[in-house]
Amino acid sequence: MTSTSSNARARQIVDLLKEVPLFAGMPDDDLARLSLLITEKHYPRDTVVVSATDPGDALYIVAEGEVKVSLWSDNGREIILSTLGAGSFFGEMSLVDGEPRSANVACLTDALLLRLGRKEFLQALRSYPTIAINVMTEVCVRLRRADESIGNLALLDVYGRVARFLLERCEEEGEVVPEGHLIKKIPTQQHIASRIGTSRETVSRALSEFQRRGFIEQRGKGLLVREGLDPKAVSRSRN
Ligand code: CMP
């Protein structure tokens, strides 16, 4: 690579890093120094980037695309813990605590990932307290979500959890329309099942019941979720 093209590449990476909340608050000069330690790579959809129990060797930042964080049960069922989109990072846990990878991470779409090696990440944490605080903040967000999921598993039946999943989607990406929220891209029933710890067939039954009761309605490729879908109420009505 010529020095002109490597400069252009470094500038490109700095532009990407500026969009990443992990590096929020870092001056451009520091981002430029950091960019020299980062490599970028395109991954086709379905590529496994990190495997549970492997040793942790790097932190990854999602520059483009979406990945899923999941575990596999002994009987081959996938449990999706989270999905992460552009601007998110993963792989920090094993780097910080020195334990093996806690979960698998695979690409849900074609993705462009930035990779920062273990030594460089730990050095960056020491040199830039802002990064350390940003990592802690995100880990707190993830812990709160995990606490909420544990609560939902105990408090809601499967129908309640399907309802909760739909409402979370509405909050994250739903368009507000007069009747409620429109989720533009409906996740597959298998995806919902893997997120809430049940089978695809059960998700299908829950969606049919919500449709019959007028809580949801298919709108082309999207899904209209009407006001009034209440996870606790749909759970209670079945107990
Ligand atoms: P690490 O354990 O190194 O490798 C797997 C990564 O998945 C982990 O770091 C985190 O970055 C990410 N991860 C694990 N559990 C969750 C979760 N509940 N929510 C979001 N990301 C997670």
Kindly describe this structure.
The protein is of the alpha+beta class. The protein has two domains: about 5-155, Jelly Rolls; about 155-235, Arc Repressor Mutant, subunit A (Orthogonal Bundle). It is built from nine helices and twelve strands. The chain has helices at about 5-20, 30-35, 90-95, 120-125, 130-155, 160-175, 190-195, 200-210, 230-235; strands spanning about 40-45, 50, 60-65, 65-70, 80-85, 90, 105, 110-115, 175, 180-185, 215-220, 220-225. Helix 6 (about 160-175) crosses helix 7. The longest helix has 27 residues, at about 130-155. The mean pLDDT is about 90. The structure holds adenosine-3',5'-cyclic-monophosphate (CMP).
List keywords for this structure.
239 residues; alpha+beta; Jelly Rolls; Arc Repressor Mutant, subunit A; 2 domains; 4-stranded antiparallel beta sheet; 12 strands; elongated; binds adenosine-3',5'-cyclic-monophosphate
The major β-sheet equals: 4 strands, antiparallel
User: How many domains is the backbone divided into?
Assistant: 2
Number of strands: 12
Low-confidence stretches: none
Ligand list: adenosine-3',5'-cyclic-monophosphate
Mean pLDDT comes to: 92
* Number of helices, counting only DSSP H or I runs of 4 residues or more: 9
The CATH topology assignment of the largest domain is Jelly Rolls
Give, in spatial order, the strands making up the sheet with the most strands.
Answer: 1-8-3-6
CATH hierarchy, class of the largest domain: Mainly Beta
What's the multimeric state? single chain
Overall helicity:
40-55%
CATH 2nd-level architecture of the largest domain: Sandwich
**The named CATH superfamily of the largest domain:** Jelly Rolls
β-sheet strand percentage = 15-25%
Shape: elongated
